[in-house]
Design goal:
single chain; mainly beta; Jelly Rolls; six-stranded antiparallel sheet; 16 strands; 48% strand; globular
């Protein structure tokens, strides 16, 4: 398992990660008794700044949680944790996309800034382009070539209102380290609070209409 209360177990299996018709497929599979397998891929190496773009057809089904996101290449520096979620999506809300970034001293103490957009399209039906433009000054999120969210990378934006002991250890450039791309599909977890989303059942999972996340391509552009 990975993340906050996720139900899936990521496995190295051609049932969960495979190529079909030239597309990368990540599939969540119910195994019964509240157990699920799924897939997660993380880039080797890392890059700083640029445009990060992927063409993805998202899944459809209760408590499916696909993501195209980024983590620092060196997560163990003990002073600064950063994360950029280029696209997150709840499988039962097939028209709503979320964009998020985190900064903090560690995973337990961070500031999260996010936004979401509800569209007039079903993202499980066709491929759409999701992108992040990352410069020293800002982060910009795009869907199909249109800007949907923007954040500054200055110190004040990310430390205003944050206790000193939860801030990064020193005043430094934020979002200036190499990051790695991650593609995965979680099942359940903190993204689905029970006061808003009824608990996932085995019956719900067996009835998932489309438990697959297909990736046509991923591209990184740098000047």
């Amino acid at each position: 398992m990975y993340g906050e209360g996720d139900l899936e177990c990521y496995v190295d299996s051609t049932e969960n990660i495979y190529i079909k018709d030239g597309k990368l497929v990540i599939k969540a599979i119910p195994k019964g008794n509240g157990k699920y397998t799924s897939g997660r891929i993380r880039q080797k190496g890392g890059f700083t700044y640029g445009a990060y773009v992927a063409s993805i057809k998202l899944p459809y089904g209760k408590h499916l949680w696909p993501a195209f996101w980024m983590l620092q290449t060196d997560e163990g520096n003990g002073c600064l944790h950063e994360e950029i979620d280029i696209v997150e999506y709840r499988g039962q809300e097939e028209k709503r996309i979320e964009y998020t970034a985190y900064v903090g001293r560690n995973w337990s103490h961070h500031k999260m800034l996010s936004d979401d957009t509800t569209f007039n399209v079903d993202f499980s039906k066709q491929f759409h382009e999701f992108a992040l433009l990352w410069t020293p000054e800002k982060l910009q999120w795009y869907v199909d070539g249109n800007v949907k969210y923007e954040l500054n990378t200055d110190w004040e934006t990310w430390t205003n209102g944050v206790p000193n002991d939860q801030r990064p250890c020193r005043k430094q450039e934020l979002f200036a380290d190499p990051f790695q791309i991650i593609l995965n599909m979680a099942v359940g977890g903190s993204f689905f609070p029970e006061d808003k989303y009824p608990k996932l059942t085995d019956g719900d999972a067996r009835a998932w209409p489309k438990p697959t996340m297909e990736v046509d391509w991923v591209r990184i552009y740098q000047s």
